[in-house]
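notes to self, project folder thing:

trying the whole complex as one job this time. last attempt i did each chain seperately and stitching them together was a nightmare. two parts in total, labels are on each line so i dont mix them up again. if this works i'll redo the older ones the same way
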Amino acid sequence: MAFDPSFFEQQRRNLFDQYAQQAALNTYQRYLAETRGQRPITQLEEAAFGTTPTGGLGQVPKLTSSYARRGLQGQNVRSGIYDQALQSYAKNRAKDIGYAKEDLAGTSRGYDLAATQGLENYQQGIADVETNKARQIAADAQALLQLR
Amino acid sequence: MAVGITKYYGAGSRPISKFPTIKPMGGEEPVVPTDATGGNNGSGSNVSTIVLDTSGGSNNGYYAYKSALEKIAADQAAAAAGTQRATTGAGYQADYLTGLLNQGIPANVANIISQGDVSGKQYIADQYKLLADQLKGAYNPTTNVGTGYLGAQGRTGVAYDALQNYLQQNPPTAFQQAPQTPATTVTNDLAQYMGGQGVSTAPVDPTVAALNAAAGGGAQNYNSLMSTLGQLSQANQQSRLAEQQMGRSGALSGLEQLYQGQTGGLQQQQLQALADLQANIFGQQLTAEQQAASRNQAIQDALAALLGTGYISPQQINPTTITGAAPNNTITQSEPTIKYTPPIQAPVAKTPIEQLAAIPVKASNTALNTKIDNFITANPNATAAQIKKKFPDLGKNIK
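result (full assembly):
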């Protein structure tokens, strides 16, 4: 079989197209996942402090007012119940935000890994094409010599 | 008209007392007259006398007789001259034939065969070199164009050189260049507020620490995974380079094996062609030798036939030097000493009268010689018994 480099060029092009498509899809999905993952974090943060008119977090937690109405919290008023409730809330809040952040990070890492693997596969595929090309040239050279 | 004839007889002769009767044309044979001695052999003691032909033409018989005698003498002389010529010619012929003996293969034929051998070998060598050169081919590294083994070798080398360069210049970089993911962090963002409220943050801190630790572990695990995959990719790269080297070696070995096989086949064809040529040359030489042997045999047969004529004896055949003028040069050929082997001749039975004639008698014994001659002339078909009766002593040798 005579050497036909266009055949390998076709393979290279296909590999690149496949990689580009996969990378684009992965990037888009990563964006969606990041948006989706960031949302509960934002909600948790806003739930604790409220928001300012400018969109920032407020200064007073919402839960304090309910204890104040019941006389468990206020100026010169201290109760173990309020302290414990505030500490428990802080723990739960930290956990929820931590878990949400870790979930978002894990999801993002998954997409990063997919992108890296896609690039690796593309590079290995191109190397395979180059290897096959050299092998085909050698085989053609031998076939031509065999014809003599 | 009468013609006078004088007949002189030598000493010891005697006059013929009675002339022979002349045979008339168509008549009976005249009776041979006898002389006074009764022998009619000319050995008489008397002297002849002059005889005049006064017959007036009636002596024509005498002239006829004389003419017959002269014819016999002329015939004898002619026969002797013919024998002499035949002997001389036979000698020349024998010399010529002897000169042709054992000359072997003619030089021009031998030269043609030899030239065929040399040119044939040269042709085979040239053809082998041509085909071997074609098989080996040539390669131009600048243009990457070539033929034959060198072309295939060159193209294979260039292909794997290109692959090697590509692999070395394009190592896999995905995992190596992948960003290290940072660990997520969690803080107790209510700590300031809790402090303001006089609430201790200590119970919250372990939870925050545990969350950060878990997040750090997750990030480290991911980064470790990327590092491991990067090392795997590097191992793949090394394997690919080794594969390239193995592919190059295998391809070049295959080419070498193929080339050696083709060269071997070519050499085998060359040997076969040389063997065929040698057999052909041997065949031509054998044919030439056979023809030379046949020619030599024909010459020997001719010599044998020449000897059989009896004009020459084997001793007369001597090696001779043939000198002749060729169209462009002078050919001088000296024959080596030839041991002549006389041909086997079947004994020729001689008649009794021939045996008598062959018996050697001293020349001084003229009487006996004459008697023998007369007897032979008078009795050409005499039997052995007649000869023995006439010549008792000599007759013992007659078979």
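what i see at first glance: The CA atoms of residues 226 and 396 of chain B lie 142 Å apart.
need to look closer tmrw
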